[in-house]
Amino acid sequence: MRNSLRVMVALLLVGAGVSFADEEGPAGFLFVVGPRLGVSYTVTTSEGFTDAVNELFPSGTYVPVNTLFGVMAEQRILLGETRSHFAFQEVILVAGLEQSIALPAASLMIGYRDYSGFEIGAGPNLSLRGLGVVVAIGWTINARGVYIPIDVSCVLPSQQNAARIALTTGFNFVTRRSSRF
Questions:
Q1: Which of 33, 63, 95, 102 has its Cβ near the most Cβ atoms within 10 Å?
Q2: Alpha helix (H) ranges present in the chain?
Q3: For residue 101, what are the domain limits?
């Protein structure tokens, strides 16, 4: 499990890039990075959530509503001369800090964002409880080169895990542009 999280962190750092190059002309590929925060709800009773958390942390009573803090890196493939694009996202979030627990999760998402800001995506999710699938829908507001996403996501339920629903926001900015792949 720890090796999987290390791989996810490495992918995030590689995807984020370290260059702030600003090439002339339209970019075919953009690297975007920024923080995330939000709130999540695990679709279960307080007792069910407490039992699941107690498998990972010392005994206590926990509620299934948690704050989220994290970071997101995104690679955008622009579609021609439009502002619509395909997106590959790496998202790492930690839930539960307000309850003195740390429930990390990492997602790799493939999606589409329309010129208007509408976005949709899906991909694998890795948490302490195992693997799952996350789907997301939302809207990104472009405020002079700073992108402000507002997204609703759901980690689909499985035999081992209850569904998790989250509302997240944050901001992103372009760290690198490239006109070639």
A1: 95
A2: 2-16, 46-54
A3: 2-17+25-178
Which residues fall within 8 angstroms of residue 99, CB to CB, at 6 or more apart? Answer: 60, 62, 63, 66
CATH (domain of 124): 2.40.160.20
pLDDT digits (tens, 9 = 90+) for 158-171: 888 899 999 999 99
Residue 173 and residue 17 in contact, taking contact as beta carbons nearer than 8 Å: no
Distances (CA, A) of 136 to 111, 121, 142, 177: 9, 5, 19, 25
Q: How far apart are CA 78 and CA 76, in angstroms?
A: 6
In angstroms, rounded to a whole number, what is the distance separating the alpha carbons of residues 43 and 66?
12
Q: Given the structure tokens 């791989």, which residue do they identify?
A: 7
Q: Scanning the structure block, which residue is given the tokens 């509620």?
A: 63
State pLDDT tens for residues 11-26.
Answer: 444 444 433 333 344 4
Domain count for the chain: 1
